[in-house]
Amino acid sequence: MQSKNIVSKIINLYHIFSRNALGLLLLATLFLNTSFIDDKKKTNSKIRTIVIDPGHGGHDPGNLGTGRYKTTEKHIALDISLKLGVYIENAFPEIKVIYTRMTNDKFLKLAERTQLANDNNADLFISVHCDAFTNPDAYGAGVYVMGMSKLKANMDIAMKENSVIYLEDDYKENYDGFDPNSPESYIVFSLTQNTHLDQSLNIAEKIEQQFSTRANRKSRGVKQAPFYVISRVNMPSILIETGFLTNPEEEDFLHSEKGQDYLASAIFRAFRAYKENFEGISSETDIVKPIVVKKERTKIPEPEKEILTDKVVFKVQIGTYLKSMLNETLFKEINAEEQRLNGTFKYYVGSDTDKLAIDSLKLKMKEKGFKGAFVVAFFKGKRISTKEALSLQSKNKSHE
């Protein structure tokens, strides 16, 4: 790829010119020359593709919790990421959401994560993580954008996250000589600093605000640090530290379904505001409903023309699983309906044209333990949004 070739050239030039200050100045001048920069410009006026990157995975657990829940960063980051993705998909079905990893607990190289985003020409890259510290009193959420911070603490955090490279057998070949513990490597980072910094700061500031006002989290602010995954993507990018697993109270929050919903919805609200600003539009509602982790992405179809004789049906979706649950006692008791899609099993209960009745059923399902239960709508056997469903019902009544 062109961006990889550019990084290789910069590193080679660094080794040639870095012997004195004049050489570094010449290197910076060469890099800033327009013929040396990847000049691919975004021509789209709309956000079409987003890559969500749940940090760590596989034999890299990331940060660990206090031990009470056997909490690992890789699992919390994945759950929040999947919830965030579903919020975006439900609100903006025209946006393609790509996850670097989903239901599989897979180890991914940092270079693979950035390459996935670049290959798909994504418009935004969001990497989700959890923090840790030796002092259990440390708490709060923060957002990072690419940059060389003056604060040593930020550099230490970046070095710690980037050190996952050492888990790769062939890291020296994959990263063109980049060494997470080498100051020289971070000088190169400063020269390849994200050209989308303004846009990255825009969404980072919105997320920071949502964390403090909507999720009621202590804000640790927006900071700059040279994280590898947000320095090698050709689009606006942010890395989110959702909280400290080493703080008992914050671990409780991060481990809970409610806490994950709060964080995912806060990030979604910030994304929605960022999208509106980017595209010059405004949303019609501020309602964000809780969703189910690991929900399979589906494209919401446009309603068909012939609507006058068809009825909208509402159901409660109680979950998505990797195996059939129909033989489970609870699923038999509630007479769950199974739908298989792309290797996953979705389960619904109820079927009614009255949304209020289904809303009541949803509450009962939550009491039974399906905390992520939510209402879905179907028209002519196809899934549509509840907003479209209510609109169709209104049109049908006007023709009765």
Overview of this protein structure:
This protein is of the alpha/beta class and 400 residues long. The protein has 2 domains: 40-279, Aminopeptidase, CATH 3.40.630; 312-398, Alpha-Beta Plaits (2-Layer Sandwich). The protein contains 13 helices and 11 strands. It has helices at 2-17, 21-32, 73-91, 110-119, 152-162, 171-174, 183-191, 197-213, 248-255, 257-279, 329-333, 355-367, 386-398; strands at residues 49-54, 96-99, 124-131, 141-146, 219-225, 237-244, 312-321, 337-341, 344-352, 374-379, 382-384. A 6-stranded mixed beta sheet has the order 2-1-3-6-4-5, sandwiched between helices. Strand 8 (337-341) and strand 9 (344-352) form a beta hairpin. Residues 13-44 and 294-309 have low confidence and may be disordered.
Write the layout of secondary structure elements.
Layout lengths: L1 H16 L3 H12 L16 E6 L18 H19 L4 E4 L10 H10 L4 E8 L9 E6 L5 H11 L8 H4 L8 H9 L5 H17 L5 E7 L11 E8 L3 H8 L1 H23 L32 E10 L7 H5 L3 E5 L2 E9 L2 H13 L6 E6 L2 E3 L1 H13 L2
Parallel strand pairs: 1-2, 1-3, 3-6, 4-5
Antiparallel strand pairs: 4-6, 7-9, 7-10, 8-9, 10-11
Helix pairs in contact: 1-2, 3-10, 8-10, 9-10
List the main descriptive attributes of the protein structure presented here.
6-stranded mixed β-sheet; 400 residues; alpha/beta; 5-stranded antiparallel β-sheet; 2 domains; Alpha-Beta Plaits
